[in-house]
Amino acid sequence: MSPSATPTGSTPETTTPRFGKHLLSLRDLSADTITALLNTADGFLEIGTRTVKKVPALRGKTVVNLFFEPSTRTRTSFELAAKRLSADVLNITVAASSVVKGETLTDTARTIEAMNTDTVVIRHAAAGAPQLLAETLNSHVINAGDGAHEHPTQGLLDLFTIRRAKGRIEGLNVVIVGDITHSRVARSGLIGLTKLGAHVRLVAPPTMIPSGIEKLSEGPGDVTVGYDLDAALKGADVIMPLRLQLERQGAPLFPGKREYATLYGINRERMAAAAEGAIVMHPGPINRGVEIAHDVADSDQSTILSQVTHGVAVRMAVLYHYSAGQGAAA
Ligand code: CP
User: Fold this and answer.
1) CB 86 within 8 Å of CB 141
2) Is pLDDT above 60 for 160?
3) CATH code for the domain in which residue 39 is found
4) Using CA positions, which residue lies closest to atom 6 of ligand 1?
5) Secondary structure element (H or E) that encloses residue 36, with its range
6) Which of 119, 168, 303, 309 has the most CB atoms less than 10 A away?
7) Do residues 167 and 290 both lie within one domain?
């Protein structure tokens, strides 16, 4: 682990980064490879502020967005990221595709790849769908969220946002609170944060924490699991409430939204227990007044919109490393 990083600058890597051909899970990346991706994103962030927001890095490459689940942030930021790198982008609207006629995932993907695509970005309700495509296609495959398994680019953009806000990841106390059972964001976050040396505190009602979740932790960081949010918030540097995923819960896991907000919602009073300069993050979309109060979501401590801005730069870095050939070569 590198001990230092400037608030907006890059952290040196200590070993050669190895990206692999596909980005399916943050488990597959070493701390140094994650750091290398964040460093590349640092370089790409400025492009979004230019009058002409385009560089030729992926000219001639074709990126496919194949989203089987709704998305605002991830799909549009992958599209913008690819366009800012001068790639051609194909957005497949599943509801208007032959999937509705019964075509399978792999036949759909093979059909699209037959048009000579280079990288497929996939979101799917089934955990493991990106893995299946990686075993089926010649293209690079990027996981844009699969069921409750992982959302690696969200994990990367959250790490990037923390590093820019706090200057480091190592040694920070990070509270992740909410519907951890259904959260691919929490899983990728937990893996990435602990690999980079953070102390993660997972907090939720007992019905929303899967047993054994702490086994996902990878050193040098660590994880604790608890049910008491006020205890976990003491001295927290980063607070990350998660969306209540009612659409995935089936039978309710909590009596109601009001009770949830009372016990697990992030509000001004609770934020007072956090460390000085603490930030509050949220992957979005947010349920205002449930997992996060309006005034906290819109406060100076909130990084919610910065996360969206950073998402474009981080996905540019991911597409660059997984479309320009470095992924296959590493
Ligand atoms: N954070 C996230 O994945 O948001 P979207 O569902 O809007 O892509």
Assistant:
1) no
2) yes
3) 3.40.50.1370
4) 71
5) helix 31-45
6) 119
7) yes
